[in-house]
């Protein structure tokens, strides 16, 4: 009824199509539409998984008596401790590993200038040739 | 009360003598008013490096671990007494570490440098040392006078 009055007011634009609402206002259909609406309150499904370092992921407590674990963070050629850019540990774990290795070496549990030959066959936890970021020097 | 760990390296001896040394070292802890929680035998094995003590070079040692409590002031005396013990090759006392829960921060650390907190702090710190720039306070975004 409404648009007829507009037509009368604007006789010049007779060929103009005036759009009217096509949605019926029955309550049953409206609720069904709402059901089909996507749920915008859900968590972001594309969010990336938080990366964790290998010791945090498996919840390993580093201890100076666990020489087999500590020697995996030691170079077989020089006996020096690999840095964070190679081991891929988080800052806290790296500091822990370093302090525990120093304790073990001081207590006579662990070699200082080499990796003990019984640990040479141990699996590699990280690739020493491809550090995750370049050397700081 | 702090629990300490004593790592004791004894020279290679027959069993009765080892027993005597362990009793002697334990008595010294009791003498300081301490008590022992645990004694662990970590075995006899080749040392990772040779050690000379009391005029002898040792390449093998028996490893023993004591877990004990003593007043912290008597730690130096204990170590001194073990140092004078001929059968002890090496001794170290460490605090027993209680595992503290912490969050893994690897995700923030592997971000590109401009997004890392420590790098941002470093840049902000470096900016403090910049030479102060002259402020003309004209309200204009260009220099109004002839240069």
TrEMBL record, chain A:
Pfam (any one): Ribosomal_S18
SUPFAM superfamilies found in the cross-reference section: Ribosomal protein S18
GO biological process: mitochondrial translation
GO cellular component assignments: mitochondrial small ribosomal subunit
InterPro entries: Ribosomal_bS18, Ribosomal_bS18_sf
GO MF annotation terms: small ribosomal subunit rRNA binding; structural constituent of ribosome
Family recorded in the similarity comment: Belongs to the bacterial ribosomal protein bS18 family.
Annotated protein name in UniProt: Mitochondrial ribosomal protein S18C
From TrEMBL, chain B:
GO molecular function, one term: small ribosomal subunit rRNA binding
Pfam families: Ribosomal_S6
Region described as Disordered: 128-147
Organism superkingdom: Eukaryota
One GO BP annotation of this record: translation
Signal peptide: none
Gene3D superfamilies associated with the record: 3.30.70.60
Assigned GO CC terms: mitochondrial small ribosomal subunit
Family as reported in the entry's similarity comment: Belongs to the bacterial ribosomal protein bS6 family.
PANTHER family registered for this protein in UniProt: MITOCHONDRIAL 28S RIBOSOMAL PROTEIN S6 (PTHR21011), SMALL RIBOSOMAL SUBUNIT PROTEIN BS6M (PTHR21011:SF1)
Name the UniProt record assigns to this protein: Small ribosomal subunit protein bS6m
Organism annotation: Ceutorhynchus assimilis
